[in-house]
Amino acid sequence: MKNDVRWDKALYTTDTYNIEGLDGHAYAKNGIEVQTSSPLNDNPGTNPEQLLGMSLCTCLVGTMEVILKEHKIDVEPRAHAKISYVRGKGHNEFLVHAQVAVPGQTLSQTRALVSEVENRCCVSQLLRGNDNYSLEAVLDLD
């Protein structure tokens, strides 16, 4: 992957780091810095589950905004992601369930739009095909 020629033609690239461990800080070069911590303690900070959920929601909404513009639908989509840290078979795993709502659309219309989003959202594409990931069209978020 490191020698993939697509790196040379990327639309955007970021470099992110964590050099202090789970209870420390993570940052993007020339960008944000967040205090990190484990979800299994009460220490202040953002955990990997929260970061994954926010990344997924942001990508789903951003992609849906593009799709809605293509369909000439002028509403603001919303997304919710629930991330659980669970014991798996020999290792721990994430369970990821996301919902997308498009105000003013029927459930059938929303399902069709979410099908488009699932195929175009980069974060969803990374997760798709994993038994621990699901994406659902809803009329209202949980």
From TrEMBL:
Quick one: signal sequence residues?
none
Point out the coiled-coil segments of this chain.
none
Gene Ontology BP terms: response to oxidative stress
From which domain of life does this come?
Answer: Bacteria
Q: Which family does it belong to?
A: Belongs to the OsmC/Ohr family.
Q: What is this protein called?
A: OsmC-like protein
In its UniProt entry, the species of origin is given as: Weissella paramesenteroides ATCC 33313
